[in-house]
Amino acid sequence: MEKEFTKSDLKNRMVVETRCHLFYMVIDNWLVGVSDSLDLRCYSDKLFHYYDKYDIIKVYDEVNRLDSFIPIHIIPNVVGTKSIMALLWKRSEIKEVTMSEVEEKFGCKVKIINN
Predict the structure, then answer these.
(1) Among 6, 26, 56, 112, fewest CB within 10 Å belongs to which?
(2) Sign of CA pseudo-dihedral 65, 84, 69, 11
């Protein structure tokens, strides 16, 4: 999962997950979901959408049927099940925090030093 996915890496029948945890199947230049669809032309090459809630944060391997692409592990109260899709890529993001949040986490004053 080290490789950075780009829009050109997406193939038909791959499944993507957006920042707002909606799942879509790639079909030609569209992301087709259960109740809506998104035009891939609205995405940058790095899979960012102009509404950040639709940024692609995960890419899964290809599936054969539209009704089979929601990972089982996201359904609450289901124990011992596994996802039916292989995760190919996950966006790695830097979390921004304040110094006071860091100090609260460590329970003391913090001084940042260079390596």
Answers:
(1) 112
(2) negative
